[in-house]
# Entry
Amino acid sequence: MKDTKYIFVTGGVTSSLGKGIIAASLGKLLQARGFKVTNQKLDPYINVDPGTLNPYEHGECYVTVDGHEADLDLGHYERFLGVETHKANNVTTGRIYQNVINKERRGDFLGKTVQIIPHITDEIKRNIKQLGSKGDFDFVITEIGGTVGDIESLPYIESVRQLKWELGNKCLIVHLTYVPYLAAAKELKTKPTQHSVKALQEQGVQADILVLRTEHNISADIRKKVALFCNVEQSAVMQSIDVPTIYRVPLNMQDEKLDEVVLTKMGFDLEKTPKADMEKWTAFVEKLENAKEEVHIAIIGKYVQLPDAYKSIIESLLHASAYNNKKLKLELILSDKLSEENVEKKLQKVNGIVVAPGFGQRGMDGKFVALKYARENNIPCLGICMGMQTMSIEFARNVLNYTDANSTEIDPSTTHNIVDIMDEQKDILDLGGSMRLGAYKCKLKKGSKAFDIYKKENISERHRHRYEFNNAYKQDFEKAGMLCSGLNVESDLVEIIELTSHKWYIGVQFHPEYSSTVVNPHPLFISFVKAAIEK
Ligand code: GLN
# Structure
C-alpha cells in the first residue's frame, strides 16, 4: 500500500499557459524516477462531461479505455506517461454538483442545508482522494482547470486549501504563471505573477513552487525577486521557456530541477531516490528535432480551423514521423472546400491522407472526393471512424456502383445504407447507451495488412460512434477487394477495412490516435507514415 502524495497544479495570469503540459511533465519526471504516478484534471465548467462540447470551443474530445468522454488534457497525460487514464481522472463541476444533488435527493444529508462548503468541497476532495485511495500511486497530480481568481475555480482552490491543511507535506502546490516581456522597456515583468500568487493567498493557499512561463530566459535576479515577493524559496522559482515542441518541456523542467524540488519538499531523501531515466524520451525528442526530410500529410476534416480538435491525430502523426526519422509537414484541409475541381491541386503533393472523424453531414462530400482521389492514385490513406464510414460509402458508390449509398446518419431514406445502426451493436452496448464508447476487443484476419501491422491477432482499441458498417454488404465489399480485416470479438461488427490492391488504404472504426504515446507510437500510424515515405 503506497502512501500517496498529492500535487496540485494551478494557473494564474492567463489561460492557455500549458498547465496540462507542466503537470504531465512533472508526472513523467517522477515516473522516470521509478514512482507510480497518475494525472488528473478538474474542469470548472458545468457540463457533466466534455462529450457534448463543441470541438471548436474545447478541442478534441478524448476517450478513455473505460469509455469516458474526457478533456483533451488526458491525452497529454497518456502520451507523456504511457499509462491509461480512466473516468476518475477527469472531473467537471457539473459532475460534482450532479453527485451532490443526487445524494441530496436520496436524503443522504439528513435534512442539512447543502452548501458549497462543506458539501461541494467534500465531493471535490473525495474525487481527488479516490485516485489515491487504493494505494496504487505514489503521486496523484491534479491539474485545476481555469485561472486563479475565476469564480468557477473558487471551490476547487478552497478544496486544495483544506487538503493542504489535512495532509501537510503530503500535499504540494505548483503554480504556473506568465512573465510577459515588454519590448519597449526591454524588460520581463513579474507584477502579474506577484498578483496571481496574492490571489491564491487570498484564498488561503500558498504556492510551494512557481513555474514562470516566458519567452525569454529569466535571470537569477528576477527569480530572487519573485521568491522574495511571493514567499517561495529561490530554488522553487523556475522557468518554462517557449520551445518548438512540447516534448522538450519535461527535459527543460528536469534542467530546472522541478522533480528534485518537489521530492525534497515532500520529504524524500534525494540521495536515496534514483535519478530520472529519460533516455528513451530524449532519443525521441532528438529524432523529432533533427529530422530533416519531410513527410507531407493532409488531414481532411471539418474542424480544421481549430487544430486542437484533431490533437491526438496530430500528435500520433508526429510520433510516427519522428519514429521514421521524418519531419512532419502537416496540412489541415477543410473538407467543405474540397471538390472534384480542386482536389488534384490540393492533394497532388501530399504523401499521405488522413480522413478525420466527425459527426453529421457537413463536410462529407469533400471527404468522398479526397477518398476517391487517394484510392485511384494509390496514395496512402487512413480513415478514422467517420473516415472509415465515408471510405465504405465512397467505395460502395464508385466501385460497387450503388449510386445512392449512404449512412443512415446522413440520409435515412437511402436504399443502400452502408453505414447504419446495427443490432449487433445494441447487443454489446452497456444498458442505456447508444454510442460505442471506450475499448473493444477486435480480432485481425491472418494474412491481412492489419495483421501485418499489429503483428498479432487480438487487439483492443477505443471507440466513439453510434453508427457501424452494415454487415449486409460485407460479401459485396470483399468480392470487390475491400477486405474486412478486423472484426469485433463479441459481435462480428466490422472494425477495419482495407483495400487489398492499394499501397495503403485502411479504414478503422476505432480511434488509434488515443493510444499513441511518445515511447510507443501507434503501429498503424508508424506503418501509414512508412508507406507515405516509400517511393
Ligand atoms: N458519425 C459517426 C458515428 O456516430 C462517426 C463518429 C466519429 O467519427 N467519431 O458513427
